[in-house]
Fold this sequence. Notes:
- The protein has about 325 residues and is α/β, with parallel strands linked by helices.
- It has two domains: about 40-160, Nitrogenase molybdenum iron protein domain (Rossmann fold); about 185-310, Rossmann fold (3-Layer(aba) Sandwich).
- Helix content is about 45%, strand content about 15%.
- Strands 8, 9, 10, 11, 12 and 13 form a six-stranded mixed β-sheet that branches. The protein has a five-stranded parallel β-sheet with strand order 5-4-3-6-7, sandwiched between helices.
- The termini are far apart.
- InterPro entries: ABC_Transporter_SBP (IPR050902), ABC_transptr_periplasmic_BD (IPR002491).
Amino acid sequence: xxxxxxxxxxxxxxxxxxxxxxxxxxxxxxxxxxxxxxxxxxxxxxxxxxxxxxxxxxxxxxxxxxxxxxxxxxxxxxxxxxxxxxxxxxxxxxxxxxxxxxxxxxxxxxxxxxxxxxxxxxxxxxxxxxxxxxxxxxxxxxxxxxxxxxxxxxxxxxxxxxxxxxxxxxxxxxxxxxxxxxxxxxxxxxxxxxxxxxxxxxxxxxxxxxxxxxxxxxxxxxxxxxxxxxxxxxxxxxxxxxxxxxxxxxxxxxxxxxxxxxxxxxxxxxxxxxxxxxxxxxxxxxxxxxxxxxxxxxxxxxxxxxxxxxxxxxxxxxxxxxxxxxxxxxxxxxxxx
Length: 337
């Protein structure tokens, strides 16, 4: 009886030991598979995301991220985009998705994306993606140049293009430094108002956004910076604008009014910028939430400090950016309007 008990005990020990070995080996194997087939990273929302090692189908749902995917040399992977996106020109080859309180999830699923890259607009939106088991990288809302650099780094890691991402960041940072060094010789810091839109609600200005940082780097003082701590933009009226009395007004491309409309507006004739003819309008190409922010910075610097930036050639910078960073051909560049 005792011998039988010992035999049974030995058998149980052997079974347990074998199970433990199998469990450990199974865990090691799983870890090795995960390590070889996936990347692990933390997105802008602080979520730990597992991304397939070989991403071949990408859907991008915000303009800045789409351009960054191109900048790291992966534009050919984009199979889906928002219908409002039109840059670079070849992105029009990707399937257009309409965003109305979210995208059509069935249409999104039909694209079989390995990865979705987007600014997450709401918790509900994120949950809808997770419910459908989409792999999603959340990128930061762009309030600063640093946010753009972080997004470039994040997308570079997600797509296995870290070296290229570092090159893009280095190029942009060098461009910023070159421009700021030009304007640093001036002791004057004109007071600048950047106007985002003008409509029935009033004059929309940016209170928390990259535009304010760009004005400061371009050698000016942003009059709308920090007007509100709760919202990124606020609406002011014409009386407010007159009281601000900016030395320079820069209109976003979103403003429907022309420079002449502002210069001839009877309500603004006492504003220094209007009296002196220092009203400018930025091109639609000068997108502040993508690598093209350097074009807006260069434009602002030339508006604010024309003498100090006389050698700054925006056309040359534009070609260099589109060729070296976006990888566009002369033919593709000629299509940009």
